[in-house]
Hints:
single chain; mainly alpha; two-stranded antiparallel ribbon; globular
Amino acid sequence: MSLKNLLDELVKEGKLKRQDTGVDYLNSLLEAAKRNFEAAALVKGKVDEAAFKLVYDGLLQIGRLILLLNGYCPDDGEQHKTTFLVAGELLGKEYNYMLMHFTQVPTICSISGYGRLPENSYGI
């Protein structure tokens, strides 16, 4: 499926909507992601679950930024999944592959009650 067809289909399904966003909001998302990554680096090795959550949130903010830069915003009950799906498609195959694997980890961790994560599973 082409990128345009995917975007059109997600809009039709109510998972995505068109949205114009101001530069100030985009900059605030970028700054928030940076703070999450910096905080993750500080707690890495001390509280790995917190580091993972911070990296996940930072990636989600970057994904949202990518969508907004392209004039879209997630608009459904699966905003994380939609954000990573569309951001990966917009960035290209190699990034899509990475983001789709990253989104599998929270599901696995939530089933196990956020047990200890594998070493370097959060990539920082």
